[in-house]
Amino acid sequence: MSVLDNFESWKDFLGDRLHEAQGNGMSNKAISELAFDIGNYLSTEVQAKNDHEQILRDLWNAADEKEQHAIANIMVKLVQNEGSK
Predict the structure, then answer these.
(1) CATH assignment at residue 8
(2) Which of 33, 51, 75, 82 places its Cα 20 to 30 Å from the Cα of 43?
């Protein structure tokens, strides 16, 4: 099963990567930019598998770049307490 198949697995995966990046000294700005890049990738390259994913895709696609950065930052906040820490 791919981490993209289940939203909880996806959040755990992102949380683990976030903690790893922070542990390796990656700046919050760099993490924010990476989250933005991932959001762009997912919105253009990964097909929504359920209504929740479609809503996220629709929000991302309706947003301008500044709003997309805000969505990416919110996603980082969402997963800060996820993963194995």
Answers:
(1) 1.10.760.20
(2) 82
- Residue 42 inside a domain? The answer is yes
d(CA 17, CA 1): 18
Q: What is the DSSP letter of 80?
A: T
Residue 47, in any domain of the structure = yes
- Could you give phi then psi for residue 3, rounded to 5 degrees? -65, -20
13: Cβ–Cβ under 8 A, 6 or more apart, which residues? Answer: 3, 83
Locate tokens 């770049």: which residue?
A: 65
pLDDT of residue 13: 84
Q: 2 falls in which pLDDT band (50, 70, 90)?
A: low
Question: Is 84 a member of any domain?
Answer: no
**Confidence band (pLDDT; 50, 70, 90) for 12?**
confident
DSSP summary character for residue 83 = S
